[in-house]
Design a protein that fits this description.
Layout: H1 2-15, H2 19-26, H3 30-41, H4 44-60, H5 71-89, E1 110-111, H6 123-126, H7 148-155, H8 159-170, H9 175-181, H10 186-207, H11 223-237, H12 241-245, E2 248-256, E3 259-264, H13 266-277, E4 284-291, E5 294-302, E6 308-320, E7 323-330, H14 333-338, E8 344-346
Helix pairs in contact: 1-2, 3-4, 3-5, 4-5, 7-10, 8-10, 9-10
Length: 349
Amino acid sequence: MPMEMDTTDLIARARAGDHNAFRDLVQGHSRELQVHCYRILGSLQDAEDALQETLVSAWRNLGEFGQRSSLRTWLYQIATNRCLSMLRADSRRPRIASPLPEATLPEPTGAGDAPPWLEPYPDVLLDHFVDQCPGPEARYETTEAISLAFITALQLLPPRQRAALVLRDVLGYRAGEVAQMLDATQESVQSALKRARATVDNHLADSSSGTGSRKPARQPDTAAEHRLIARLTDALERADLDALIGLLVTDVRLSMPPAMLEFRGIESAQRVFAAVVFSPGRTYRAVPTRANGQPALGLYLADPHASVYRAYSLLVITTAGDHITTITGFNNTNVMTRFGLPRTLPETD
């Protein structure tokens, strides 16, 4: 009851033009709204923009909030429709898919599922975000619903299917609530969900083909996972290709957004690492971090003309047991700075 009274008071003060009251009203929802926008848009930069536009819209339209639904539901409705408007307007940054310029890549095994705009989400932000207890219709666990495979699968869906699936199967809103939030009929929402679930589940099954189940066969952030990532770090820093290949499952998948290419299987992975990562004269340092609830490494390449290692790539790792099933490399130093990683590291003795 005191919480309800505090919220009612904050709403009244915010409607009267009190910016501080509005800030207090929405600050507890901001992080989860950003994650929601990230799921739909697949890009942290775009999600940040969508969140800011959501908060501006909420401030301007607070007088229309009739408290027929909760404030949280109202904010999610605004955020969802803001994301859909961004997608319809094609207002997002240019998407250029191109291979790495530093080396000639081997022939890919296929076109990758990861879209050019895909970005990882830092766990340092997730540490401050706790999902509200999902509603009765939720189908995906919190850890699965932020994984890079799930975010990639969502980007395969048409925008409204994407929004419907996130609202119902991740957040757990009922079909009627989703229909109201999307200004759609309940029948159209159910139809969209049926198609969306098939696409997402098929993608997740393919992504975890070496695990024997749809969901990743792993318990994240365990001692075993730490040992595996330590072995990967050691193999990268010693340029030990054989040791690195020994950590991979037979049908390992490699991708490097924004290049929409996929390399699948041990032999293909060996060619990629030999041509791109372990080409002559290259030495690395790797710094552990976490992205999308998964282990990750900030990879730094030694500068031959200076006594520093320069930011090179962020590798997001998917594991199953004591092996690696997927490596997604983001060759963008701006991505690394979002994880609090420096642009350079000093040489070590």
